[in-house]
Design a protein that fits this description.
With 1368 residues, the protein is of the alpha/beta class. 23% of the residues lie in helices and 37% in strands. The chain has 16 helices and 95 strands. It has a 50-stranded mixed sheet that branches. Strands 1-6-11-15-18-21-24-27-30-32-34 form an eleven-stranded parallel sheet, with no helix packed on it.
């Protein structure tokens, strides 16, 4: 024996070894059973509290030759308790043993026995360990722990370690570390890289870099292993995990594990490779939190080889794994092989038995398995569980998982998850994408791209997309099933909630016998009493089976078991002529791109099918042994468009039993037969059965029987969504084969929706089913209409005498029908399209035109003439998809309500999201207040009335009248033709003059005050705006004479100083340059300006400030009065909706009169009392003003006793008009009120015609009276009324079309005319404003035209105190 070759410490307590450096030590032992214990270093036997610190062991060489020869820790061997090894380096060691039964335990370090062993910050580098001989073993190329309690390793660094065992039944375990057994063990901050292990010989075994092999209470944290290789060579050899191995651990806590760039492989007959990065025999009460794996490969080569799992677990109980990230994990097997299960979520998991196991928060990508050799079996590209008793996968996201299988008789299953047996499994929030299964060879099969579950499963929020199954074109007798997932049903049902299978594909080939279910396949398990799968909120969308000579079926869902489905959507599935976006020029590029890492010699190509195949059930196939019970399901838009296959059953192909309740089958294309439903099969032993309860089957397409095809011996029962007879629509039909069904049971009569029947040869009878009895009563055709179903007991039975079809012919374009047309009614139900509607598609397709809203008249069961909505409420263009379509964000009766989460805006007709309201209110409310202040200030900061004369007052009153009147009579019909900027100008003009309740279009942003504001709330908000205007003016009236005028004078003084300085400087400079004099121009100008501005102030009339305030209050009152009157009248505006049923909109009551601005409210309610009283009060107010003015006489006489404030109001009221017509301002106010009252008329033509007549009378009255004092203003006023009349005539054109119920012509010519009319209206609106501005500018220019005398001795003529307003 060679023990302690350099240092031998025999027992002892508290010994300390520091800064020891051993270099190039050599030791050897020859002979049977010889021992090498630290033969080249330090040995301590039974030491207590030994410390080895900061020591280096370099270049140790040791050899042991002989049977049973053993080497334990050639550099350091310590036995005892409470020992501590820290900051040591073991480098360039070479240990070898030879002979049968030889062993190496800890190539460099051996720490045995005792308690509380601590290893801290040790380094292993460039170590080489070899054992050779029969049944040799090597455990721990760096360090070996045979046993212990309280072992702690804090910081272990290892590089370039190589271990090898040579010989039959030899073993090589732990390139860096091996723990045989222990309790309360801690490993932290372990970093290994560039390590290798090999074994050569029959039945040899090799394990990876880090092996805490056995123990209880392990705590592992921050373990990193990279660039690791574990390989075995020889028959029946085994390779377990390149990185991490556990034997029978319990109570393990693992955190922050990282494994990268590793390979575990075996070569030889019946060799096995398990767990590319981790293996464990039995795991109990353990957790893993944080696992990262990347670039890892597991490989087996040789006959009858097996490779299982990236993480291989024989048995797991109460095991929970979370926060897993895996990238590029691969298993490759070559030979006559059997391959099962690889990792989970890229972590690659295989579990034999699992009880209460959870994997959560998993991310994985680039995961693949492949096998080659006849026959081979590849299953579970991401995970396989052989026996699952409570396994849960939660928050899992897998991208690009692949299964490839090559060889005759091979089988490939589930690139995602494979669950074989057990009691239950849970998938919650699991997403799979780009999963692919590919097979090569004769008699091969592929099933379930993403998931294959053979036990009861619970799926919640499970998504699989962009996945595919394919076969090599050279393969024959191939079967391809389920492009997404396979669920097998047994005695316990599966429960599925929110399943989504989207854009999955089966790439069928000519050599295939069958290609079935591009998305989901339901299988029954033989010999079991089947229970139905239960699905809720499932979506199977956009899945395809490529065409081929083989039979293809079920573009979406194939049912061989039993399924109860609630709220399921199966749409846009089918058999396209070219799947996956392939082109004739490059037919295979895209598909090949979706199959990663094809092995050499493997190929995928698309060729045109060589023979006639058959494509059935683009959406769903219910097989002979299948049952589908569907509640509130939609099977829409599935299609068979293959040019190579005869199609049948675009929506459903039923060979078993179909029961649908409250569903719809629409817009499917069956190509050949049965666009919606094909129930054509049935035999002597089986009978297809179709029950449609309150279900719509319409809008489908096929050459024969566009909606429903019923074959021989099939049972067919149907009722409409309303619970009455079968309804057919859009020119579709029910078709019966020449061997007709025994019974065609229809609840109630047969009705044709949106069209009329073609007559056929039918025998009609009534069957009334009673308990224990049945009777048949023959009736005549005339009595059919009286056979209505009640309580589900009465049925109408039709039997074809010679076979044939029931055809429902749609109404022609321009007509419509929404009334059910019974089979015995020979008259046509098609009605002329109502005004404001679009019936260009015919049938029951009725939509509104822009700005219109319609409803179903329940009295006549027709569409009434559509009502014109308030500005901006109605739909536009493509928004108009029904008769009651609204603009974006709006809904309800007359589009008066907003969608949930939306609210109306001030100065806009749009409904906008509440989420934008807080940001919007932060600027809109302050801006509104600032606008009010500025508006009041502008009215007050004017020149005195004796300086202005009557010019500005007259122009102001004329323009205000025009814009208020035009804002009242204009509608949206012409405004929508204008561009955005012109609409903005129009809106601004009307808003300033009127402050209208619904000024603006739907695209006008407006402003938000509160979230979720309704139209009634908006009405109240507009009223409060006017109240705020009045309060601001009252406040200004109180403080302006003493406080506001001071500010005004200062502003005017500064403006005058600046103006005169520059003007006089220019003149003086020119004169002085001509005289040749050089003076201080700045000083001279200062004297001139001071003398002009300060020494000659304006002469003010006593009490002028209050007169000015009174004038301003009157000017504001004109706007406030018109706005308040408009609000009151709008609150009283109603429309009668003939035959309107409020209950259809969830409204109470039965009133047909609805408030125009929100039809949710009926008219003549208590809330309209206040607006009615307000309107009556406002109507009386102008008359009261006239009586008040007449009592005080003329302005000259009233000036003697009226207060200045009232005098200012009186002056503003009468200043603009000639003396005989001094009350004409009130007359103009009443004229506006009359125009408002005319807008209450409901009929558009009568309303617009009376408005036009009223405008004509106004023109006559103004021409006769000539009330304005100035003739120029009178001319402008008469011109504005002419413009008002023109606007009304333009509006009358659209109203006339409404009166005769004629839709406007649609076409380029009509668009040009409408655009010209809109432009003319806009010109009419802007022209009076332009003329008024020009008139005021010319008047101001004449007043300012004066000569300038630059002599300082002379009084300046630019500013004069004797300005007088010239009399007329």
């Amino acid at each position: 024996n060679n023990i302690g070759g350099i240092f031998f410490l025999n027992r002892g307590t508290q010994a300390s070894v520091s800064n020891l450096r051993l270099q190039q030590s050599k030791a050897s032992c020859t002979g049977k059973n010889c021992l090498l214990f630290a033969a080249g270093g330090l040995y301590s036997r039974d030491a207590q509290q030994l410390t080895v610190n900061a020591s280096n062991f370099l270049g140790t060489r040791a050899t042991c030759d002989g049977d049973g020869c053993t080497s334990n820790g050639v550099s350091l061997n310590v036995a005892g308790s409470n020992n501590h090894v820290a900051n040591c380096t073991f480098q360039n060691a070479d240990v070898a043993t030879s002979g049968a039964g030889g062993a190496i335990f800890g190539g460099s370090v051996y720490l045995q026995g005792g308690d509380q062993i601590t290893v801290e910050n040790i380094t292993f580098q460039n170590l080489n360990n070899t054992v050779a001989g029969y049944q040799t073993q090597l455990r721990g190329g760096g360090v070996y722990f045979p046993s212990g309690v309280g072992i702690t390793v804090l910081g272990l660094y290892a590089r370039q370690i190589w271990i090898q065992s040579i010989g039959d039944y030899s073993k090589a375990y732990g390139q860096v570390l091996h723990l045989a057994t222990g309790e309360n063990v801690v490993f932290s901050r372990v970093d290994t890289a560039n390590t290798q292990s090999y074994c050569r010989g029959s039945h040899c075994i090799v394990r990876g870099a880090f092996n805490p092999y056995g123990g209880n209470g392990l705590n592992l944290d921050s373990i990193s292993c990279a660039n690791t290789l574990a390989r075995c060579f020889g028959p029946a050899c085994k390779a377990y995990s390149a990185f991490f191995s556990l034997l029978s651990p319990s109570n393990i806590q693992m955190r922050n594990l990282a494994f990268a760039n590793g390979v575990a492989s075996c070569e030889g007959q019946t060799c096995r490779s398990h767990g590319s990065f981790m293996t464990a025999n039995q795991v109990v009460n353990s957790t893993v939190d944080g696992l990262k794996v990347s670039n890892i490969k597991l490989q087996s080569t040789g006959p009858d080889t097996v490779s299982n799992g990236g993480m291989y677990i024989s048995s797991a109980t109460n095991w929970h794994v979370s926060n897993v990230v895996a990238v590029n994990v691969t298993i490759v097997v070559k030979g006559q092989t059997f391959i099962t299960g690889v990792g989970t979520s890229g972590a690659l998991l295989f579990m034999v038995t699992a009880d209460n196991v959870t994997w959560s928060r998993v991310q994985g990508s680039e995961i693949s398995i492949s096998c080659e050799g006849p026959p081979c079996f590849a299953a579970g590209g991401v995970c396989e569980v052989a026996v699952s008793n409570g396994v849960s996968f939660i928050d899992v996201n897998i991208a690009k998982a692949t299964v490839l299988s090559n060889g005759t008789g091979s089988l490939a299953q589930a690139a995602g998850f494979m669950i074989f047996s057990g009691s239950s499994v849970l998938f919650e929030r699991v997403s799979l994408s780009d999963c692919h299964v590919h097979v090569i060879g004769a008699n091969t099969s592929a099933l379930g791209t993403g998931l294959f579950v053979m036990i009861p499963a619970v799926l919640t929020d499970f998504t699989i997309s962009n996945s595919s199954i394919s076969a090599d074109p050279s393969s024959v007798a191939v079967e391809l099933y389920a492009g997404a997932l396979v669920l097998a049903s047994g005695s316990v049902s599966s429960d599925v909630t929110r399943l989504t299978a989207r854009s999955n594909t089966i790439l069928c080939i000519d050599g295939a016998d069958l290609c079935e279910a591009a998305a989901v396949l339901l299988l029954p398990l033989a010999g079991l009493n089947l229970r139905a799968h239960v699905w809720q909120d499932a979506q199977i969308i956009g899945n395809t089976v490529s065409p081929a000579a083989a039979a293809v079926m079920a573009g979406g869902l194939s049912i061989r078991g039993m399924l109860n489905c609630s709220n399921c959507i199966i749409s846009d599935n089918g058999f396209p002529s070219q799947s996956l976006g392939l082109t004739a020029e490059n037919p295979e590029a895209e598909f090949v791109a979706r199959i990663p890492d094809l092995p050499n010699g493997w190929q995928v190509q698309l060729t045109a099918p060589s023979g006639p195949g058959k494509a059935i059930g683009a959406g769903v196939v219910v097989r002979t042994d299948g049952v589908l019970r569907c509640d509130h399901c939609s099977i829409n838009g599935n299609n068979i468009s293959s040019q190579y296959a005869a199609g049948a059953g675009g929506g459903l192909y039923v060979m078993g039993t179909l029961q649908m309740h409250a569903g719809d089958v629409r817009w499917n294309d069956g190509q050949g037969v049965g666009g919606g439903i094909d129930g054509s099969l049935g035999g002597s032993a089986t009978q297809a059965s179709v029950l449609l309860d309150k279900t719509s089957v319409e809008g489908n397409f096929a050459t024969i029987a566009a909606d429903i095809f019923i074959g021989a011996r099939a049972l067919f029962n149907a009722s409409t969504p309303e619970g009455d007879g079968l309804q057919l629509s859009r020119g579709r039909r029910v078709f019966f084969t020449l061997n007709p069904p025994e019974l065609l049971n229809l609840h109630g009569p047969i009705a044709c929706k949106a069209g009329h029947f073609q007559q056929g040869d039918w025998r009609v009878s009534s069957v009334v089913a009673e308990a224990g009895d049945s009777r048949t009563l023959n009736v005549s055709k005339e009595q059919v209409q009286n056979l209505t179903g009640f309580a589900g007991e009465a049925f109408l039975t039709l039997q074809s005498l010679a076979g044939g079809e029931i055809v429902c012919t749609a109404c022609e374009p321009g007509t419509y029908s929404i009334k059910d047309h019974p089979i015995d009614d020979l008259s046509s139900p098609c009605k002329t399209c109502p005004f404001g509607a679009n019936c260009s598609l015919g049938g029951a397709e009725v939509t509104s035109t822009a700005g219109k809203w319609g409803w179903i008249n329940t009295k006549t069961n027709t569409v009434s003439d559509l009502k014109t909505l308030a500005t901006g409420f109605g739909c536009r263009g493509e928004e108009c998809s029904s008769i009651n379509s609204c603009s974006f964000g709006r809904r309800g009766v007359l589009c008066g309500s907003c969608l949930p989460g939306y609210g109306v805006r001030m100065f806009s007709s749009a409904c906008q999201p509440n989420a934008t309201c807080s940001t919007n209110a932060s600027w809109f409310i302050p801006l509104l207040l600032i606008g009010m202040v500025c508006y009041c200030a502008v009215l007050l900061m004017r020149r005195p009335l004796q300086q202005l004369g009557s010019m500005r007052s007259s122009v102001f009153m004329s323009l205000l009248f025009f814009y208020q009147a035009s804002g009242i009579i204009t509608t949206e019909s012409t405004t929508t033709q204008l561009s955005g900027p012109t609409r903005g100008i129009r809106t601004t003009l009307f808003a300033i003059s009127l402050g209208s309740f619904s000024i603006g279009q739907a695209d006008t942003p407006g402003g938000c005050i509160v979230q979720g504001m309704t139209e009634r709330g908006k009405l109240l908000a507009n009223f409060l705006v006017y109240v705020l205007f009045i309060l601001f003016m009252a406040l200004f009236s109180k403080f302006w004479p003493t406080f506001g005028l001071v500010l005004q004078k200062q502003i005017q003084y500064r403006l005058r100083v600046t103006f005169h300085r520059f003007k006089l400087m220019f003149k003086a400079t020119k004169l002085l340059q001509e005289d040749g004099r050089k003076l201080d121009i700045e000083k001279r100008m200062s004297v001139l300006v001071t003398e002009k501005v300060e020494n000659h102030p304006e002469q003010k009339r006593e009490g002028y400030e209050y007169v000015l305030v009174g004038s301003s209050i009157f000017s504001l009152g004109l706007t406030v009065y018109a706005g308040l009157m408009e609000l009151c009248l709008r609150a009283l505006t109603c429309r009668k909706l003939e035959g309107f049923n409020p209950s259809q909109y969830g409204l109470k009551g039965s009133s047909e009169w609805r408030w125009f601005y929100d039809g949710t409210y009926s008219c003549f309610d208590a809330w309209q009392v206040a607006p009615l009283l307000g309107a009556l009060s406002l109507l009386a107010l102008p008359g009261c003003c006239i009586l008040w003015a007449r009592r005080h006489g003329s302005v000259r006489s009233a000036a003697q006793h009226l207060p200045p404030l009232q005098l200012g109001m009186r002056v503003a009221y009468e200043k603009a008009f000639r003396s005989p017509y001094r009350h004409w301002g009130m007359v103009m106010l009443y004229q506006r009120v009359c125009l408002m009252l005319l807008q209450l008329i409901a009929d558009p033509f009568v309303r617009t015609f009376t408005t036009t007549v009223a405008c004509l009378l106004l023109l006559v009255a103004e021409n006769r009276a000539k009330a304005f004092l100035l003739t120029t203003v009178q001319s402008i006023h008469e011109l504005s009324i002419v413009m008002l009349l023109s606007i009304s005539v333009i509006e009358l054109r659209g109203a006339a079309l409404v009166s005769v119920a004629t839709s406007p012509t649609i076409g380029p010519g009509a668009a040009v005319i409408n655009g010209l009319l809109a432009s003319c209206q806009f010109v009419c609106i802007c022209l009076p404003l332009c003329l008024g501005i020009l008139l005021l500018r010319s008047k101001t220019a004449r007043q300012r035209r004066r000569t300038i005398d630059m002599q300082p001795e002379t009084r300046p003529v630019l500013y004069s105190t004797s300005r007088k307003v010239p009399r007329r």
